[in-house]
C-alpha cells in the first residue's frame, strides 16, 4: 500500500489515455485497500484494519461497502459503539449527493449497537 500512497499515476501527463489509466489504477488501489482491510480484520488486526478501511472510505466516500467495512473494523478494534461515528460519516458523505445509507448499512449499525452490553 506504500506505492499507492505516492499519488496519482503520471499526474503531469494530460490526455484521455492518461486520465483513463489513472482512473483504472485508482479503482484498483481502492479495491486493494478494501481487500487489505478485510484481510487484516480476518487476521485479528482490527486497529490496522480500521486504518486501512478508513483510507478506503476516504478514497471512495460514496461506496457503502467501504463504510460498512470501517464500521466492522472500528467495532472490532474499539467496541461496537465506535461504529456509530463511521456510520454518521457515511450518512454525511451520501447526503452530499442526495442519498442516505442503505438498509444493509442501517441494519449493520443496528446489529453492532445490539452487541453493546446494556445497549
- H/I helix tally: 5
How many strands? 0
Low-confidence stretches: none
What is Rg?
16 Å
Through-space gap between termini: 37 Å
Multimeric status of the protein: single chain
Can you put this structure into words, describing what you see?
The chain is mostly helical. The protein has 5 helices and no strands. It has helices spanning 16-42, 46-59, 64-78, 83-95, 103-114. Helix 2 runs antiparallel to helix 3. The N and C termini lie far apart (37 Å).
Summarize the structure.
The chain is mostly helical and 119 residues long.
Keyword list:
single chain, 119 residues, mainly alpha
Helix-strand blueprint:
Blueprint: H1 16-42, H2 46-59, H3 64-78, H4 83-95, H5 103-114
Helix pairs in contact: 1-2, 1-3, 2-3, 3-4, 3-5
Amino acid at each position: 500500500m506504500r506505492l499507492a500512497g505516492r499519488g496519482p499515476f503520471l499526474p503531469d501527463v494530460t490526455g484521455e489515455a492518461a486520465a483513463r489509466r489513472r482512473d483504472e489504477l485508482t479503482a484498483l488501489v481502492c479495491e486493494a485497500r478494501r481487500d487489505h482491510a478485510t484481510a487484516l480484520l480476518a487476521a485479528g488486526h482490527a486497529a490496522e484494519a480500521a486504518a486501512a478501511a478508513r483510507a478506503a472510505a476516504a478514497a471512495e466516500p460514496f461506496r457503502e461497502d467501504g463504510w460498512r467495512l470501517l464500521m466492522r473494523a472500528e467495532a472490532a478494534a474499539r467496541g461496537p459503539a465506535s461504529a456509530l461515528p463511521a456510520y454518521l460519516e457515511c450518512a454525511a458523505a451520501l447526503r452530499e449527493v442526495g442519498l442516505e445509507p442503505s438498509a444493509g448499512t442501517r441494519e449493520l449499525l443496528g446489529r453492532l449497537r445490539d452487541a453493546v452490553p446494556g445497549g
